[in-house]
TrEMBL record:
Pfam families found in the cross-reference section: FeS_assembly_P (PF01883)
InterPro entries, sorted: Fe-S_Maturation_MIP18, FSCA_dom_sf, MIP18-like
Source domain of life: Bacteria
PANTHER family: FE-S PROTEIN MATURATION AUXILIARY FACTOR YITW
Domain MIP18 family-like residues, every copy: 6-79
Name assigned to this protein: MIP18 family-like domain-containing protein
């Protein structure tokens, strides 16, 4: 996947807001990897801020909806992983400022 398409997909994913924290999943550092195969199947490897998050299903749906208008993406699979574990160190500077974290 070229860098421009990756940026386009990440930009779309910035529209997906973690409902508990109020910051998007990209700036929270929840998106670990993107993979687009030749058939246009996008695999989004991501984590959640906490295991057993009751909103996991909602976030998966929102990820799929966020990228559906990108022409190269025909289908989306969301792979939730727990390794490496998410820490606030993965957050962007924007997210840390918004949440008052140094």
């Amino acid at each position: 996947m070229d860098e421009a398409l990756k940026e386009n997909i990440m930009g779309a994913l910035e529209q997906v807001i973690d409902p508990e924290i109020g910051i998007d999943i990209v700036n929270l550092g929840l998106v670990y990897d993107l993979d687009l195969d030749e058939e246009g199947c996008l695999t989004v490897t991501m984590t959640l801020t906490a295991m057993g998050c009751p909103l996991a299903g909602i976030l998966v749906d929102q990820v799929q909806m966020a990228v559906q208008d990108i022409p190269e993406v025909k289908d989306t699979h969301v792979n939730i992983v727990w390794n490496p574990p998410w820490t606030k160190d993965r957050m962007s500077r924007y997210a840390k400022i918004a949440l008052g974290i140094n």
